[in-house]
Amino acid sequence: MDEENQRSVPVLPWMRHPLDVTRCEQLSLRRVPFLDCRLKSALENMKISKLFPVQVALWQETIGPGNFERDLCINSPTGSGKTLAYALPIVRKLLPTSTVKCLRALVVVPTRDLALQVKQVFDAIALPLGLRVGLAVGQSSVADEISSLVYLPGEEEGVDPGFLSPFWFQSKVDILVATPGRLVDHVNLSRGFTLKHLHYLVVDEADRLLREDYQSWLPTVLKSTQSSNNDDGGGGGDDVFQLGFPYSPWSRRSCGVERGSNPHSRLAKVVLSATLTRDPGRLVQLNLRHPLFLSAGKMRYRLPENLESFKLICERKVKPLYLVALLKSLGEEKCIVFTRSVDSTHRLCKLLNCFGDLQIDIKEYSGRQHQRVRSKTLNEFRKGQFQVLVSSDEMTRGMDVEGVRNVINYDVPKYIKTYVHRAGRTARAGQTGRCFTLMSNDEVGRFKRLMKKAEASACLEHNVPSHLIEELHSTYQLALSKLKEIILESRRKPKDKSCQ
Ligand SMILES: Nc1ncnc2c1ncn2[C@@H]1O[C@H](COP(=O)(O)OP(=O)(O)OP(=O)(O)O)[C@@H](O)[C@H]1O
């Protein structure tokens, strides 16, 4: 059963009184204590002039007095800047870089596109500091990938000659961003790949990565990091702890946790999501140490501050017509349309493309497609080469595309979690955005109950101009007939090649 539908999931004691991230103020970079000047200029190059509240909170718990002593669980809205919130302190902690490279930080995310996105953030702040970031996502063969992560015996370039030995492997990267499947492949199969020097483990989109279908990666990873628990560390940063941190919005000394003499003598974990699970059965697998729970606001689910939600009521059989009218009324704004499944994504996309002279470029993005096709589509969407992406749910967790002004739920989501992640593709980083949900009259009640589960979820009714509906009516009928023909045609062919 989905966690959301369980009547009484017991809440772990440490989750009952979270620290409220919204009590942190944004902080301009020049006021961020202990921010290395190279990190500061890397951030400025990214056009970042201040840290968002969740970033300030994490900085405080890692570089500030918290000093990474406790494992951190963060529930913070979509687009609130969680990636940088963990990337920044990890990079800061990995300074100064040692002569011998080893893999010290691992970030696990559910999809390849998300891994690429996270790597880009790390690259932007870690490369200028001499730290290298690797990717393990299954984009190439295991052998090709491992050669980008580890110096194999005999591969001498870049290796300190004092360390060369026929039995000796050296990591090429300090930080690795990985998807679970490929990560396990490397742990089990790749000679020279080791997690024994790991100091930081980040589980991003944690509720998804802790689901049954992903679970086996976690015990494998935790087991292979075990010897790092006795390591002496060397992550740096103790000076920072001793100097103190002036921006505490809460009294964390009331947490009652003694500081150890070496906060790096164990694997520090950071677990995040916009809809973090509270299921003890799932969280227990992470083997968290004195976890500290940081959450934004009072309710478990929270929508971005500048998001406006709308419902658009229409009869089921004319939903595509209303969708097209809505898209037309939104002009040239970038939109993502979500459907309930990969099949309906494919069908809807085909139907929309049958509308003839819509003058809206529309493409499909779903798990039905080959990864290569999907990544290409996403790149084109990012570059603004087309305007409307029709997508299924699974692929879009964490996806950050600049300029998406509208999200459209073609189907009412079943769970509030789904609504939160879909709607969260817009109104990111303090920008404004709108989320429209199409529904029939008999779905209004269920939708209302769903929205009550989230904070900041007021929802007004939206009407598309009736003249647009009238104008498009005959084109809609033609599109339906065209689609019928296409379906019949594809049944005659042995295989539909559109998803290759
Ligand atoms: N301090 C900042 N100033 C300006 N922009 C920022 C800042 N931090 C992050 N951003 C931008 O905010 C956007 C959202 O960040 P990010 O993808 O990390 O959000 P998130 O909280 O992980 O969202 P999701 O839950 O959907 O994964 C990104 O485009 C990022 O570049």
Residue share in β-strands: 15-25%
User: What would CATH call the homologous superfamily of the largest domain?
Assistant: P-loop containing nucleotide triphosphate hydrolases
Beginning-to-end CA distance, first to last residue: 34 Å
| Biggest sheet record | 8 strands, parallel
Number of strands: 21
Pfam family, one: DEAD
Function: RNA helicase.
InterPro entries: DEAD/DEAH_box_helicase_dom (IPR011545), Helicase_ATP-bd (IPR014001), Helicase_C-like (IPR001650), P-loop_NTPase (IPR027417), RNA-helicase_DEAD-box_CS (IPR000629)
Domain Helicase ATP-binding: 63-294
Brief account:
With 500 residues, the chain is of the alpha/beta class.
List the main descriptive attributes of the protein structure presented here.
16% strand; binds adenosine-5'-triphosphate; P-loop_NTPase; DEAD/DEAH_box_helicase_dom; alpha/beta; Rossmann fold; eight-stranded parallel sheet; 16 helices; 500 residues; 2 domains; seven-stranded parallel sheet
Task: Give a description of the structure.
The chain is an alpha/beta fold and 500 residues long. The protein folds into two domains: 232 residues, Rossmann fold, CATH 3.40.50; 185 residues, 3-Layer(aba) Sandwich (Rossmann fold). The chain has 16 helices and 21 strands. The chain has an eight-stranded parallel β-sheet with strand order 1-12-4-11-10-5-9-6, sandwiched between helices. Strand 18, helix 14 and strand 19 form a beta-alpha-beta unit. Helix 6 crosses helix 8. The longest helix is centred in the C-terminal third of the chain and has 27 residues. The protein is globular and about 70 Å long. The relative contact order is 0.13. About 7% of the residues have low confidence. It binds adenosine-5'-triphosphate. Adenosine-5'-triphosphate binds next to strand 3 and helix 3.
